[in-house]
């Protein structure tokens, strides 16, 4: 069974940084594209950063230059380094692997980690 455990969130002031971690079990993350998503209250979950199985990265425009996705293969873990945080980055953050057939997340969602950016 594929499981993800996200951690590293917290309360941070605007301009601050956080590093999120996603530990995967039941799947080898280096074999798949994997993405970080975020969800604000009342809104749909949206992807913000993606790392391909060939180490190509993709970011939504709103986080380009501020967020960095990376993978630690021996630890089967994916990170999201978030710098220059803004109040608009406040959300619950999740990770998931993407299907090679339809590009959609296909595993069960973890509990996520709350990121709150506020002064």
Structural class: mainly beta
What is the helical fraction, as a range of percent?
under 10%
> How are the strands ordered across the major sheet?
2-10-9-4-5-6
Q: Could you give a short account of the major beta sheet?
A: 6 strands, mixed
- The count of helical stretches stands at 0
Strand content: over 45%
Please give the oligomerization state of what you see: single chain
Low-confidence segments: none
Model description:
The relative contact order is 0.32. The strands form two sheets. The protein has a six-stranded mixed sheet with strand order 2-10-9-4-5-6, with no helix packed on it. The chain has strands at 3-7, 10-12, 18-25, 33-39, 46-51, 57-59, 67-72, 77-82, 91-98, 113-117. The mean pLDDT is 96. It is mostly beta strands and 119 residues long. The N and C termini lie far apart (40 Å). The radius of gyration is 13 Å and the shape is globular.
């Amino acid at each position: 069974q594929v499981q993800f455990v996200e951690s590293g969130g917290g309360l941070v002031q605007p301009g601050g940084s956080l590093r999120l971690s996603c530990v995967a079990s039941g799947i080898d993350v280096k074999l798949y594209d994997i993405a970080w998503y975020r969800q604000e209250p009342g809104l749909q979950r949206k992807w913000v950063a993606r790392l391909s199985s060939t180490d190509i990265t993709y970011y939504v425009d709103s986080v380009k230059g501020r967020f960095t996705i990376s993978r630690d293969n021996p630890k089967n873990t994916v990170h999201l380094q978030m710098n220059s945080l803004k109040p608009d980055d406040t959300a619950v953050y999740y990770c998931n692997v993407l299907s090679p057939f339809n590009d959609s997340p296909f595993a069960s969602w973890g509990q996520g980690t709350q990121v709150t950016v506020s002064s």
